[in-house]
Amino acid sequence: MIDDKKVVFSGVQPSGNLTIGNYLGAIRNFSEFSDLYKCFYCVVDMHAITVRQVPAELRRRTYETLALYIACGLDPKKNTLYVQSHVPAHAELGWILNCYTMFGELSRMTQFKDKSAKHADNVNAGLFTYPTLMAADILLYQTDLVPVGVDQKQHLELARDIATRFNGVYGDTFVVPEPYMAKSGAKIASLAEPTKKMSKSDENTNAVVYILDSKDDILRKFKRAVTDSDTRVVFAEGKDGINNLMTIYSCFTGKTFDEIEREFDGKGYGDFKLAVGEACADGLAPVREEFARLMADKAYLEEVMKNGAAEASYYARKTLSKVKRKIGYTSL
Ligand code: ATP
Ligand code: LTN
Hints:
With about 325 residues, this protein is mainly α. It has 13 helices and five strands. The chain has a three-stranded parallel sheet.
């Protein structure tokens, strides 16, 4: 608890242009916690370097991700917004937790298996220990709730196991965090291969709708989205493409699947795809405008980063000192 409030923590990597998967599965839900919880939202640049990045792009995307947080409704006065590498406690606790995490546990992580297959020339140790740094992010702030997409569930379970193990050895040290997954939107699929998750690092840019895509691009991408040989807009087993489009439409319009089925009864996929594209483009328009305004004001973004890092460091250091004392480090 911080100031009598439960704590929320989440992070997004500045590893590419953010997608509507990142938006619907994660960022859009962040602001709902701002009033009742103490919220930390971090741009996790240390995680991003587990895959090779172009330095100038990483720097630009770090600003962009922060600007998107704000453009998606996170008020820096109500939320602690900061950059991971600005708070060294993450790296310090990350190292310590490595020593309380088993090789076998990390070997079972599906994201590690997927990413090492995708980047076979760079299966580095950081990619392997990615989940212990993520556990450090969360546990540093005594986090109660972690809003994430379904793909991060396994990492969160590991963070819980690490916290429980550490508490078992040294007595209560960490709060054991709970995941929070949106009822709808926690798993947005690729438009080209609807059984796969939409991912910002997908090479096929037509499979992915970016938050900052123009309206024309958004309409075009939905028009080309893979569906099936049926013609009915109904949510059903085996209709992954349509199910995904219905989920996206529902997220942007607030309509239920029943309402959507009725709305498009007797109409074809063409009409439906156009409506999904319109709803998505209209829903994202205010975010795009606010983003452009913020990116033109680097000084403001830097001030947010600075204040956020100072605030986050204060709480992170408290936990870190406690951990160091418990494990037997000396202090001067
Ligand atoms: P990468 O493709 O580089 O692995 P990513 O698109 O998975 O990145 P992250 O920065 O790892 O993005 O994720 C940020 C947040 O967005 C996480 O909470 C993650 O669960 C969520 N998220 C990512 N993709 C989706 C998706 N397709 N549907 C729902 N949530 C998603
Ligand atoms: N691993 C996450 C990003 C991330 C995160 C976190 C999410 C890093 N640290 C802490 C929640 C809490 C991802 O790839 N989406």
